[in-house]
Amino acid sequence: MKRSVDRILTTHTGSLPRPIELAEMLLKKDEGEETDPAALRSLVEAAVAETVRKQVEAGVDVVSDGEMGKIGYSTYVKDRLTGFEGEATVNVRGDWADFPNATVPLAARVKRPACNGPVAWKDPDAVQGDISTLNAALAETPAEDAFLTAASPGVIAHFLGNAYYASREEYLATLADVMKQEFEAIAGAGFVLQLDCPDLAMSRHMRFTDLSTEEFLKVIEGNVEALNHAIGNVPADQVRLHLCWGNYEGPHHRDVPLRDILPVVLKAKVGAISFEGANPRHAHEWAVFKDVPLPDDMVVIPGVIDSTTNFIEHPELVAQRICAYAEVVGKERVIAGSDCGFGTFASTAPNVQADITWAKLASLAEGARIASERLW
């Protein structure tokens, strides 16, 4: 994983707006409608090539495939693994419960079936398709570095509930054993592996509301242990972990503080942690790193642009946010990122408009340039 040696590098969290035609086909497939595999593959390949080009043009250094071929960053695994034919579940946003008169935004219409059978690989070659498609795009538009995302065992367990295994621990351990094949394939292809782990934060107010903070920390310690098992054969400096409190515009007043969970998160055997640092609920938490030391071999990727609103952050504000982290952990250990993805689930009406997403990323790059002039 490259570091910010002579300037602040830029990246994002993985998902980007999908073309409407592609999003529609992904949604139809998810709903069980018949789709043409060749046509879908062609749309994905074209979308990945286009999104890589746009990322580079916007000034993004560490690019991804935008998750163009996935229905969602976590639920895509139901199409690659066996065992997910159970009744679909709906997650309740716990923070909205305190505001009964508020209108809750509609959730993405993506299936989240429960696990009702043994989890094993059904389509083990799918990840190779992700790899070859991104490689083809990079051959046309080279970038400083590239990453591919994958769902962590913990976030799969969060979104796709267990109705088969005797315990959550057994379910989590099985997911870790199975998903390690995908993790190792991504790393083996030379890409940075990003593990999506919102379960380490978001599940506090969405699922484990009845637990004390101490009890919740024990839950996520188990998630980190499963994760470490799954990436045991992958070099730590080739892995980055993304945690978040839910990529939606809402109250977020029940979000567990970063200070509480960070000591557990830092036990993950990864080279970088990506997290929300721009939205109004978490923009202040750069100061946490004054009190919770970052391991010497770890990098931070704070979000310095928000991923839920159409405000385009001023480059000066982006630079200020970058410099705040750099002054605490060191400039070489900061990569500027986004709070979360801009296309978390396939949608024909994403929260942030596609053209505005690219403008936000361009502002991110300009802010990183300003910060670099001040820091070097």
Q: Tell how many strands the DSSP assignment holds.
A: 8
Q: Biggest sheet: strands side by side, in what order?
A: 1-8-7-6-5-4-3-2
Structural class: alpha/beta
Report on the biggest sheet.
8 strands, parallel
Span between N and C termini? 21 Å
Backbone CA Rg = 19 Å
> Total helix count?
10
Low-confidence stretches: none
Based on Cα principal axes, name the global outline.
Answer: globular
Mean pLDDT: 95
Could you state the order of secondary-structure elements as H and E?
Answer: EHHEHEHHEHHEHEEHEH
Q: What is the percentage of strand-forming residues? A: 5-15%
Residue share in helix? 25-40%
Would you write up a description of this structure?
- With 376 residues, this protein is α/β, with parallel strands linked by helices.
- Helix content is 38%, strand content 9%.
- The chain has an eight-stranded parallel sheet with strand order 1-8-7-6-5-4-3-2.
- Helix 1 packs across helix 2 (37-58) and helix 7 (213-230) runs parallel beside helix 8.
- The chain is globular.
- The two termini are 21 Å apart.
- The relative contact order is 0.16.
Descriptive key words:
38% helix; 8 strands; alpha/beta; globular; eight-stranded parallel beta sheet; 376 residues; 10 helices
